[in-house]
Amino acid sequence: MRAFEARNAHFDRLVNTPGLKWLGQNTNHAKPHAAVVEAMERCIRDEEFHIYAPPAGFEELRAGIVADLGLDGQVALVSDGAVSSLYHACHALLGPGDEFITTDPTWNWPMAFARSVGATVKQIPIYGEEYGYRLAPERLRAAITPKTKVIYIVDPNNPLGSACTAEEIDGIAAAARDAGAYLIHDCTYRHFAYEHHLAAKRYPERTLTVYSFSKWLGLAGLRVGAIVAHPDLVERLAAAPPNNLGSSILSQRAAMAGLKIKAEWFPGVLAEQRANQALIKEAADRIPGLSIAVYPSNGNFIVMECGPAGIRPDALVAEYAERNIMIRQGAYHTPNFGDRFVKISTTVPTAWVEELVELLPEMVERARGRNEAAQLF
Ligand SMILES: Cc1ncc(COP(=O)(O)O)c(C=O)c1O
């Protein structure tokens, strides 16, 4: 079996596992608002799916995304999810010999996209107390070279849950501007942050703000997101997008309905998510050697450090998997720091988190005795 098939078979197994508790992919399992479900039902009933959606996205959706960000003067290009936007941007902006800079940890796929078009990748470590789990703009500035074409910042950072301060965003945007580089500001988790600052407000010409409906609205399986940027830049991206026949009409209907109910629906989701983080923190604090790296997290997930407890992250993940609970090993995010932590998603029913924390002492004990490496993805 090829590597991609082994990976696929793994996820196929997970998706087809009844009752699996998804605490590993930062997906959002909150009950959807009735208006979102109705919008999809209407779309199916009216058989809207026979037609192609507008190539850059429904005008209402494009305007709704820009308004949600508050980025007046910028425009949206709807995509099949943030990952598709990132793929598109990397392919459009990078070529052989260009340099792509990001943090370590970061979200890995954009590095693969950059390498696939011949760019080199440089990562700036941010994991650890010595860095405060965040990117100091001076360190970005020091890493930039004349070849730097794209800077990719995940903010809030997945997996750490740290978010850039206003001063940090000022510094990051200034460093990108001085280098003439594109700044991809991946704001997939923005809605969960205590405060969040948009680089596009400081550097509108060359910032690409990446937006997702997977996390705050819980539409991961529907695949809808966007790039928001200066109209000149979007004009360029719109010349050869992978979804030039439009993104899913069903997904866009759900997203438009979601934006309408956001103010009413999302605060409850956020409150439950933050309470879930607190439950995990309390449980970790009770076990010597476990700790939470960044608390509270600005994402819908939390990093639990487990190295000092004498357990390997993959062993803990494998133990929970046997109880039908999916959490993520650090190595998914970073080979350099991955042996230190697991990541746990928190936009899930509180009952799932209660089960997770109740099992924690036993899982830690069992993981300690587990020697064989688990094959995880
Ligand atoms: C930082 C980051 N960007 C993008 C994505 C993908 O988002 P989407 O589901 O909208 O493609 C993820 C998914 O986990 C992510 O963590």
Structural summary, described in words:
- This protein is α/β, with parallel strands linked by helices and 377 residues long.
- It has eleven helices and 13 strands.
- It has helices spanning 3-15, 34-45, 59-69, 82-93, 109-116, 137-143, 166-179, 231-237, 249-285, 313-322, 350-368, and strands at residues 21-22, 75-79, 99-104, 120-125, 148-154, 182-186, 207-212, 225-229, 291-292, 301-305, 325-326, 328-329, 341-345.
- Strands 2-8-7-6-5-3-4 form a seven-stranded mixed β-sheet, sandwiched between helices.
- The radius of gyration is 20 Å and the shape is globular.
- It starts with a helix and ends in a 9-residue tail after the last helix.
- The model has no long low-confidence stretch (mean pLDDT 97).
- Bound molecules: pyridoxal-5'-phosphate.
SSE blueprint and pairings:
Elements: H1 3-15, E1 21-22, H2 34-45, H3 59-69, E2 75-79, H4 82-93, E3 99-104, H5 109-116, E4 120-125, H6 137-143, E5 148-154, H7 166-179, E6 182-186, E7 207-212, E8 225-229, H8 231-237, H9 249-285, E9 291-292, E10 301-305, H10 313-322, E11 325-326, E12 328-329, E13 341-345, H11 350-368
Parallel strand pairs: 1-11, 3-4, 3-5, 5-6, 6-7
Antiparallel strand pairs: 2-8, 7-8, 9-10, 10-13, 12-13
The structure holds pyridoxal-5'-phosphate.
CATH architecture of the largest domain: 3-Layer(aba) Sandwich
Overall CATH class of the largest domain: Alpha Beta
User: How would you write the strand order of the largest sheet?
Assistant: 2-8-7-6-5-3-4
Rg, nearest Å: 20 Å
Please describe the structure with a list of short key phrases separated by commas or semicolons.
11 helices; Aspartate Aminotransferase, domain 1; 15% strand; 13 strands; Aspartate Aminotransferase, domain 2; alpha/beta; binds pyridoxal-5'-phosphate; 377 residues; four-stranded antiparallel sheet; 40% helix; 2 domains; globular; single chain; seven-stranded mixed sheet
